[in-house]
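In this section we walk through a basic example: taking a raw amino acid sequence and producing a predicted 3D structure, encoded as discrete structure tokens. The instruction is simple. Fold the sequence below.
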Amino acid sequence: MTSSPPDKLAFTLPSGRRRVTPARFGPESRRDRLLPQIIRNCVLDDELQQCLQVRLGAAEAANPAARALLDTEAGTALHLHRVLDDTEYATLFPRIIGYEPDAAEPFLLYAAPRGVPAARTHVMAATDQQRLTRDLMLALCLLADQGLVPRGLSPATVLWDGSRVQLWGLEAVTRTGRPRVPWGRPPFCSPEQRRGEGLADPRDAVWSAAQVLYRLVTGRPGPADRAPADLGEHRALDRTLRSAFTPRAADRPTPAQLLELLAPGAARRVRVTLPADEERPHRESFEEALRLKRQAPVVRSEDGAGTAGPGNGEVLCPYCLETIQLDLGALFVTDSRMQYQPLDPAGINNPLRRHDIMRGAVQKCTADPDFPEHFIPVPYLTYGRPLTVAMVGQSSTGKSHLLTQMIAAVTDGGLKPFGLNWQPVNLEQHARFVRERVQPLRSGRVLDHTAALGLDDFARFVESLLITDARGQVRPVAFFDLGGEDLVRTDAALRFLLGVDALIFVVDPALALPLPQLDHVRERLDVEVNRGGDLAFGTVLDRLPKNGPYLEVPAAMVLGKADLLRFQPPVDRWLARPPATSLDPAPILEESRDVYGLLRRHAGQAWLRPFDAIRRCTLHIASATGGQEAQGRYPAGAGPRRVLEPLLALLAMHGLIDVPGGAEALAVGEAPVLETVAWGEAPRAGGAGGSSRGGEHQ
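The resulting token sequence is shown next.
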């Protein structure tokens, strides 16, 4: 260990608490020449604790793929710590001491490794082979029970101390059912994994384990795509693992089946030892809430709320929030000096030229004579009533970053897999949005906080797009940002909310969740947990028109800044999922249930008020930046994750995207047969499903 003065090391413990200690480091080496991580021994001087640091240098940390590997390793290590820390199985895996994922040189700290890599052993004694085989299958069984597949299992990642295994290579873990990608070296990676075919399966690791054991028994690697020709000469290996060498995963035994063969009853004891499911009461509460929503009568508004002006061509001006309609006598175009000049479309006889000019024209809005001069793009007025999407949340919740990345994802073609196309309502306005918001954020700059508004205004018009659905129908979609404090202190909100079509409620985890890993974020931002929920949520919900038991405006709740919780279940499960390419109600409801459970368990019911008040409301996990800012920038750039899913759900609930079971199923699920009508009762008029006890007879 070096004798140079110790460095100060700040990191987060598995408990979520922060620790700052002097630390001394040994020389660096590379764990695997094909991987970016650097390792070095370390002593934490406050307790003279010996550990191993796994980190990325500054150059590697600038690569999102390298950071993703370190995140995978940290997430897996923390997951295993939560599940196994108080069990006899904890020693089968590296023990994480701390992590710092958002530093310029992110790192993990482990307790000192136990044992030496199997790669250093030429041939293992028969008694050791038996114990190592049992431990290896036990580790694979534990991982499989958690839905994890270790793709990096090899002689280099299997450590042996003469009595027990310790399985490393956690950066290569993936989730069961994820698409396979090529990973590892033959013969230790399975044939399907090497080719990147199909979906990850726990039996991929069974192949890898069998190849490691063959290498330890014979001193040489086996063939990469079949069972070794001399397997029959090694009776113990042949008796237990012959089927593990089958080229197809579907034909191999599972880790639990092999463990049962090696140690009868061990797989069952694993399941008994693992901690109980603490989320069950929250899942049951979510399902009960959906059941009540399905059984409630749907009351459509009769006072124009949410449907203002479809018959007379009136739309809501996105600036003054008064209703206007197309007026061919109030049109303007910009000249070469970007000055507005009057336009008389009657003098343009060429239809193609007329269409092109009208697309770039604007109309002067005079609906509110006291409002500053403003102009509306003509396409905004000519495709029927725009669909207005409003972002709701307190200041500094990340709404502006999330909305910017959401619109950027649309313009990047994110709607194409769902049969939708887009074009800007106004080219100049869209170019300014990209120049002033999208490009700076994508280059890693933190966007400025939105300036406060006047006392008589609150709804910020951000951008509008023309969305064409699969049937060729075009509809303007306008995005608004409802400012936190401005919204709470103004009475002008009612005018806008009467006509809003969709709402996105953004939950800031630092304000909602009293989790210890967020304490240092709260300290940096000088904020506290708000047990009473977001005041802006309540203001909007109280002012929306309501004619039945639930509000009928479709909504999505988003747990934003989710990168702060990327190692916390269930955020870890969803944030790492690839972007959706189709809309299936089942996973959307599953994600909604998980977010509901997280908020109900840690934040309290007040933060779930939008879900409780609105009949069609989905819940989502998203991160606009993928990491935390440092000195006004994002060190690895702003990498958005799952920012489009909330908008997709809203578009589906408005019928722009077709989903199996229809838009209702997307938000409230499909009712079981015996839930729709209570025992012995006939359906009521309007389709309501009888008494609330109908589901008890299933």
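Looking at the output, two observations stand out. Residues 64-84 form the longest helix (21 residues). The longest strand covers residues 459-468. In the next section we compare this with other chains.
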